[in-house]
Amino acid sequence: MELSSSVVITKSLPRNVVVQGYRCYEGMIWYVSVDGDVKCSVSRWVVRTVRTLCHTFKVFDYFRFNMSNTENPPPRPLPISLPDELDDLSLLRRASLSATATAADPSRPTLSFSHLGTTNPRPKIAFLFLTNTDLVHAPLWNKFFLGSHQPLFNVYVHADPSAQITPPPGVFEGRFISSKKTLRASPSLISAARRLLAAAIIDDPENAFFALLSQHCIPLHSFDFVYKSLFASPKSRKARPRHRQYGGGGGEADYRSFIEILDKEPVLWDRYNARGENVMMPEVKFEEFRVGSQFFVLTRKHALMVIKDRKLWRKFKLPCLNKESCYPEEHYFPTLLSMEDPKGCTHFTLTRVNWTGSVDGHPHTYAAPEVSPELIFKLRASNSSYSYLFARKFSPDSLHPLMEMADTVIFRD
C-alpha cells in the first residue's frame, strides 16, 4: 500500500481555492479547501494521481502540499487536520443517528454498545471534563459524586493525548473518551467539546443536561443541590413529562441551557474579523456574533443542535489571521445557540470566574492561602435567581484546604 504526493490537476484551479492536503479514504481523494470545507476531489475537480493506490476503506496518513500555480497565497495551517475532521464527522453522525433512533422508539437501546453508561429511567447529568493536565481536583469531585444516592450522573473526560495524564481512580476510572490534541484559542477546543457531547449522547439516552468543565473547576455545592437546581428550572412550571421525550420528541419539558451569551462587548468587532474581513459572511452576520464563557450546562435539545451543526462550524474552524483576537471557543457556542434558540438559553453561566487581575487572557487562579469558607460563599453569590454551581480557576495546591472543608462548607447547602 502506497500513498504519493504526486498529483496532477487536469482542470484549472478555481481562484478562491488552495489545496492544503489530501488522503486516501474509501477509494477517493479528499482535500481541505481554503474555506475550510472537507470535499471530495471528484465533485469539484478531475484529479489524476500518478502513484496513488487507494485501497477501499483504508485510511492513510495526511499529506500537505501547496499548489504554486494559484494566485492566492497558502493559508496558515489548519488547527483541525483532515483525519481529525473526518473522524469527528463520523462520531457526530453516529451521535445524531443514536439520538434520532432513541426519540423515535424510547424502548430501543442505543445504536452502539458502550461500557461508559448505565441504564436508568431517571434523567442524568453528564459531566464533561476537558483537560490537558492531570485532574488534580479529582478527590474533591469523587466526594461530590458520592452525594448521589442513585446513578444520576455520567462522567466523560477528554484528555489531550500529547500530555502525560494519569487517570485518577474513583468515578473517573474508565471514563476517558477517544481524544485529540487541543490548543488554547483554537477551534480544537470546540472540537473537543463536541466530541464530549457526542460521546455522552451515544453512551446514555438518559443524559439530559451536559455540563462542560475543566481540570481547574470545583463544585460549589453538593450533588443533590446541583441536581435539584437544574431539574427544577423549566421555563414552564407544568408537570414534567417522562424524560425519554426530554431531548427528542414532542411534549418535552421546557428547560433552558445555562450558557453565557453577550452581544455588546467591545472585543466583538476585532474578533469577528479575526479570520479576515467579512469571512464569517453570509453564515454569521456581525449583529449575530456573540461571546461568552466556554463553560456551560446545555440541555439535550441544545447538545443535539451543537453536534448536528455544520454551517457555522465551517466558519469557526477557519484559521485566524489576527491571533491576538482569536478565541473561537468563546464565540462558537454562544453564537450558534443565540441564532437557533435564544429564548431557550438563560444567557448566563453557572460557572463562576474572576477576571480581576487576569494575565495573558487567563482569569485569576485561586491558590491555597486564598481558600476559605468565605471564598466559597462569595463565589456562590450571583445576580440571578440561581446560585453559581461551579467555579474556576483553582491551583493544584488548593486541593488540601478544599478537602478539609468539603463536608462542613462546600457540600453543606
Automatic annotation (TrEMBL):
Keywords for the protein's UniProt record, in alphabetical order: Glycoprotein, Glycosyltransferase, Membrane, Transferase
UniProt key word Glycoprotein: yes
Membrane topology per record: Single-pass type II membrane protein
Pfam families: Branch (PF02485)
Molecular functions (GO terms): glycosyltransferase activity
GO CC terms in record: membrane
Subcellular location: Membrane
Stated name of the protein: Uncharacterized protein
The species this protein was found in: Stephania yunnanensis
